[in-house]
Amino acid sequence: xxxxxxxxxxxxxxxxxxxxxxxxxxxxxxxxxxxxxxxxxxxxxxxxxxxxxxxxxxxxxxxxxxxxxxxxxxxxxxxxxxxxxxxxxxxxxxxxxxxxxxxxxxxxxxxxxxxxxxxxxxxxxxxxxxxxxxxxxxxxxxxxxxxxxxxxxxxxxxxxxxxxxxxxxxxxxxxxxxxxxxxxxxxxxxxxxxxxxxxxxxxxxxxxxxxxxxxxxxxxxxxxxxxxxxxxxxxxxxxxxxxxxxxxxxxxxxxxxxxxxxxxxxxxxxxxxxxxxxx
Length: 279
Known about the structure:
By secondary structure, the protein is an alpha/beta fold.
């Protein structure tokens, strides 16, 4: 097992210019960073090296001031089929599983949530197991009609991990989460939308254009307010009402003194379109 990304990425020698990707494609255009998993021959199955690169790419997009929105998607018609089980064909100990999750999966999932920029999962096809966990960790999900979602862990005697038991019941409720986790049956994109698992479903050939349209709208938003909204929404899910009201108050106090707020006000009264600068 290679050095875990949680430890590797604390190295002082690791900088943006040193990053070289083999298992994913990283591109930035029009203020949007796209992270495209690139193991199409394995339905973009996850191994240590790919997980390490996802973590690095997320960090690169987070640090890049030109990036306002992130897209995570997959090459070859699939999103991600989950853990590459061939890696563990020879067996694994309890301690090795703990270390594997701590070193590779958990840093990636936490990074999805902590980055103060919108993250959109664009899902062209299968999202299964830990691959579905990655889709759930994104802030918004847009799926092609060809997408299919599966909590496949139970089929090999395992428990959903990488955040699935946290995200899934919050999105679709505990009863449906248990249905997916206990039975291991897949659901199609339209069912996923009706359950609240995805935000939008589009035709397969429209997914790139629809994703671009969505991310363009997000990129036009006021970056500071967008970041605070993400922070407040997720914090509010696990706090009391009184705690949430107090936190909202603090954020609004910070937002009201930003230049973006003044820009938005002027545009509102002038009936023009605001251009936010993130100040």
